[in-house]
Amino acid sequence: MLHQDYLMLEAAAYGELLVARIRLFSTVLIALMPLLAWWNGAPRVEVANGAMFATLALGLALLLLLLAKRNAVSLPLRFGSAAFDVTSVSLVLALFLVQGYPHTAVNSRVIWEIYLIAIAATALRGDPRICMLAGMLAMLQYLAIVLGAVSYGDLSSPRFESFAYGMFSWSDQISRLLLLLLATVLALAAVAQTCKLMSLSSRDKLTGTGNRAWLDLRLQREVREAQMSGRKLCLAMLDVDHFKDFNDRYGHLAGDAALCQVVERLREAVEPQGFVARYGGEEFSILFPGIGLADALQACERARKTIAGARVILPGTQGDAESPSVSIGLAELERGQSAETLLDIADRRLNRAKQGGRNRVIALPAQGTV
Q1: Model pTM greater than 0.85?
Q2: Which residues of the chain have pLDDT under 50?
Q3: Is the same domain home to 161 and 269?
Q4: 28 and 108 within one domain
């Protein structure tokens, strides 16, 4: 999974949980709307329908909040909850049609605006597909409501007096459909902007790999899931040997080229089983979800040998230089360990690799230590 994609998944899960909480809060406010409508002299049928809708929505909002707390990253949940938000509005408007109030269905001053809120909320989920689903669903369902109202025949007939919600107008209905389209476009634009910012914030500018923020978030989630499921998880900490000397001898541009080549070789050696991230400076991390210590050690040794035997093309010259070697500390998650503990063990083993002569992988604890 790409680095920004993983962060977007995390953001989408948080957004779904946030939407669920907003939905619950909104349904509490919606429960007050029928009272306000009654106070302002709205027809009794709208007050009754509003109260029925508010009660049903409150119960379902509680259910969706519980589901989001259990598994907010679930794609069916995110699609389903967005469809629910839109369809619940359409059902209330359709109820007016069934009860013989077509003008209320197409000119409601209370219900229709919730379409816009439902579409805007999809931007918090960070998925353009959900924005499109909610927007298209709202437009199609509302168009069906309008056509249902038109099927009543002459909507200017005296039998519909007193026209408390105004006369039927095609221009008004087209305007509403265009507003739904505009809300969808704005939601899509917000998601695109979020994706761009997320990509910039999760990627190391020099090497193009994941950065420390991405690693911290991914490591926490992988440790949590591994502890819950019993799945294996390994973490490697890697340091480029004598990198300062390489920089001093060949210059910082050559140092940058060396780091980029190290990342390229690491990816070739460990992906797709492992994920590479820049921890800081000349230090990198490799995360191995679902991989045991033996397989992770084999991948790290393969990466170490490949890097040590490479040549770095020196920028601005026709020459090249021997690539710096790397030292690696590797650790496997044990039952009850935290992400911080796993990282600390891998880091200690990295230090042992450097103290032991560099250009090596340490994956086992020293006697009496980790």
Answers
A1: no
A2: 1-4
A3: no
A4: yes
